[in-house]
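JOB MANIFEST
job_type = single_chain_structure
chain_count = 1
residues = 324
[input]
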Amino acid sequence: MSNLVGFQSNPRLKISELITWVLALAVFFVLPDYLSLGAQILTYILFALSLDLITGYAGVVTLGHAAFFGVGAYTCGILSAKLGITDPLLLLLMSAIVCGLLGVSTGLIILRTQKLTQLMLTLAIAALCFEVANKATTITGGADGLTGVIIGPVFGLFKFDFLNKTAYLWCLGILFIFWFLVRRLIYSPFGITLTGIKENKQRMQAIGVPVNSYLLKAYTFSGMIAGIAGALIAQTNQFVGLNVIGFEPSGEILVMLILGGVGRIYGAFVGPIVFLVAQDFLAKQFPEYWNLGIGLMLLIVVLFAKGGVLGVFDKLIALGRSSK
């Protein structure tokens, strides 16, 4: 368990971490024209954070994490459009509960398998969720998407506006809460155990650790976070389409995490920022070839920057120190 050498339980917040949040808040004032993109990035950071928890720290491979993201989005959208529930906090809570139930029910099956079988099962569940969303047109809107989603003011005070000012701060606040929770979790005895399971599952079983129980809790919590991220997308867009569920968003979020750095909490921050900003820029400049640009970027990272963008920064810092 080499990663546990020198492990520091619940380390204090670093100044660089606080600066990250100050910069995120500064975006609200400095870049008012980009708040829509900013809210989207914050939502995908939360989504990537949930995937990093279960893949990067617990070692569970998945190609279907968007099942939680999509179910969270549709739960929020259906409760609002069909049942008239508009409170944003209650909608997040209901989405988290539904995704938690999905996590428990599917985790009991998925976590009993390993490697390729596990990968295929997660993909199959995502495909199943996609087909349900596509076929249940009277509830989900099918291929046309779910319209009529109305979200009330946050805490009864702050209305969602067309400039996305409320949406940006709402997403930032929710992301901050779950970043703090995930940070506490991964540096807790529970998180240390998860890292041990990732390093050597058989050894952890041999010393009496209830491995499946730990993984199921982590998988369920991860699914709930992804569901909340999906609900945030539904709230900020006030529309839910099939693009939030299935294989494509699962693949995209995995690419974002690889770009940032798997198994590193801030890799989940860097990846979505790099991916979505590059996507926005390339789609405007080269609308027919933006996928090619993203593919080349991923190829460069995989071939020359193992550990993602954060891995490159680590090497540069180490190089700077060795040259002194």
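[summary]
Residues 1-7 have pLDDT under 50 and may be disordered.
The two ends are 32 Å apart (CA to CA).
exit_status = 0
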